[in-house]
Specification:
Layout: H1 2-16, H2 22-35, H3 40-62, H4 75-78, E1 110-120, E2 126-130, E3 135-138, E4 154-159, E5 165-169, E6 176-180
Antiparallel strand pairs: 1-2, 1-4, 2-3, 3-6, 4-5, 5-6
Helix pairs in contact: 1-2, 2-3
Length: 182
Amino acid sequence: MRAKTSLLLLAALLVAGPALADATRDALEALTKCADISDPAERLKCFDAAVPGARNALSPAVQPAKPAKEEGGGLLEWFGFSRPPKPVTTVEQFGKPPEPAVEESKELKEITSTVLEFATTPKGRAIFILDNGQVWKQLDADTTELRDVPVATKVLIEVGFLGSFNLTIEGRNGLIKVSRLK
């Protein structure tokens, strides 16, 4: 069942682009033949043999027509791709290796601060006022119950999955999903 779903998804991706040529059709036919094989080992061998052709057929469609024009943090960087090097414009640059990219180690991944004030919302969600002036609120979807956090307690806020933020309280286990209010 899973193989058929994957096949249908791949077929939709392959058929969706109007500029795809016969290579795409050939790759799709090869995958379709593999899906009809009942023996799991033989079906796997068939798919393993057909995947390189499918990747080659998809490669022109995967490349964006125009690169993102945003400076620092465009769409391409979101998906782990780097920008191509800038074109050479002066005689002095011609033939030189490209300059190394700016270090990403300067990007903050976490902060540590001290709680100046702790409060709760009417829904029972925690609000942390920190000594650095920031205010963080526990997300409504986070079910962690906090009754009291003493003043001068250290907290660590770090970047979580997909741009979320996790707050951990010194001396306590677990984390709290938070968003910044101020």
